[in-house]
Structure formats: structure tokens, C-alpha cells
Amino acid sequence: MSTAALSPTGPAAQHAVRRNHPFAWVQQSLTLAWRNIVRIRQNPEALADVTFQPIIFLVLFLFVFGGAVSGGGGWRDYLPYLLPGVLVQSVVFSTLGTGVALNDDFAKGVFDRFRSLPIARVSPLIGAVLGDAIRYLTSIVILMVTGFALGFRFENGVGYGLLALLLVLAFALSLCWVWVWLGLKLKTAQGVQGVAFLVMFPLTFGSPIFVQASTLPGFLQTWSKINPISYLVDAMRGLMIGGDLQKPLLVTLAWMAGLIAVFAPLAIRAYRRRT
């Protein structure tokens, strides 16, 4: 038997160390996240939905519906209220792509190749989640640049404004575990997208994204009071333009923790069963 095979510095031992190191999954997850980022760089059209759609929604509601929705005020008065809501809507909708892409990768056999590699079982899932963060950041940057060009300013200070952007990014990373789980449970990418839209439309349009909750019909007001998106929108507005902050922020953080605690283990379990 060769000395290299027995030596702790030999190729086999180094391979085992990389595989068994307790924090090896972190590096493996980051490597797979970079794979997703490179794939987006090679196919920039994948960012079209998070680049143009947010601008369309902002301009549409600001200039076409703004006068009526805002109660007769001008669009400049409506902009500070609208931008945080559209920011939430755009970012949470962009999370759907994670589950769709994951399901598509399974159909193409990408995860069969991952299974043959000496990596932690959870690394491909974490890599998919972290890699898609570039989509969420793109949506945030595009909307904020557009908002600043139209005259939006952080009325509660730049520090709180940046915290708001971090909050919506963190919420997106928490929410996308739901779509990761769906992507592993459903058979087709079209099925994942269809179910995800059925979930997201009541969450986003049954919230104070565009109008105050008090102006909604009675049944929607009741729904809005238990809707996690409502608390996220209120927390965003509290950070960006001032207002009630403590309860919306605490409830949002609780929802984030709950989403990760419930759906991350479910996704990992579904992944192990499928592979």
C-alpha cells in the first residue's frame, strides 16, 4: 500500500477532510451559490422579471392609478407610501423563481450529479437559496434607483432606510424556503409556479401594499390583520418614512423565524427522499 494512501496529507485523506469537516457545508453551499450567480451572468435575461416588472408596477400605480388610489392627492404625495409596498411585492414575487429553478434542475438531472459529489446533502439547497439572492438584490436596487430619480427620500434617516432593505431581503430568503419545498414536492415547474401564484396573490393584494388597510372591504381587513405581508409592509414604511414600527417589526421577525424553522427542515427532508 502506498505511503500517500496512508498519509493524512494524501489525496484520499484530504478528500475525506473536505467531506467530513463540520463546516465544510458552508464552503460547499457558497460554491454552489456562485454557480447560480454565474448561470445568471451567462443568461442575463433571467433578470428581466426583477428588472422591468418592478418599474412597471411602480409607474403604473403611481401615474395611472395614483390619483384615485391616494384619495385625490398628487403622485408625489403617494410615492413615499407606495414605494415600500411595491418593493415588498416585487421582492417576494421574485422568490418564486427559486422553487421553479430547483424543480427544473431536478428534471434535467443536475441533482443526480450533485448526489455523486462528496458534499453535504443540504449544500445544494442552501446554494440555490443564496444564489438567488442576486435576483432579490437586483429588484431592490432597480426600485430604489427609480424611486430616488422620482424624488423619494428616506424620511426616517438613511440608517433606518438601509435596515428596511436588509429586512425585505432577509424576509425573501426566509420565504423562499416555502418554494424550495414546493419545488421538491411537485412534479413540474409549471405546477410550482401555479401553486405559488395562488398563494402569493392573496398575500400581496390582501395587504396594505397599495392602499391603507382601513380602506379595504371588511373581510379583507380581517385577512390583512393576520397576513404576514401586511406586517412586513408596515415595518418597511416605519423604517423608511416613519410610523408605527415595534409591533410590525417583531411580528415580521417572528414570521421569518417560523418560515425557516418549518419549511427548511421540510425542504431538506423532501430533498433526501427525492435523492
Inertia-based shape: elongated
Order of helices and strands: HHHHHHHHHHHHHHH
Flag low-confidence runs. Answer: 1-18
Rg for CA atoms: 21 Å
- Please describe the biggest sheet, giving its number of strands, its sense, and whether it closes into a barrel: none
Indicate the percent of residues in helices.
over 70%
Tell me the β content: under 5%
Number of strands: 0
Number of helical segments with 4 or more residues: 15
Structural class label: mainly alpha
Total of domains: 1
Average pLDDT number: 84
Distance from first to last alpha carbon: 35 Å
What does this structure look like?
With 275 residues, this protein is mainly alpha-helical. It has one domain. Helices cover 78% and strands 0% of the residues. The protein has helices at residues 3-6, 11-20, 24-42, 48-64, 66-69, 75-94, 96-107, 110-115, 123-131, 133-150, 158-185, 189-205, 218-226, 228-240, 246-274. α3 (24-42) crosses α9 (123-131). The longest helix has 29 residues, at 246-274. The radius of gyration is 21 Å and the shape is elongated. Mean pLDDT is 84; it is low at 1-18.
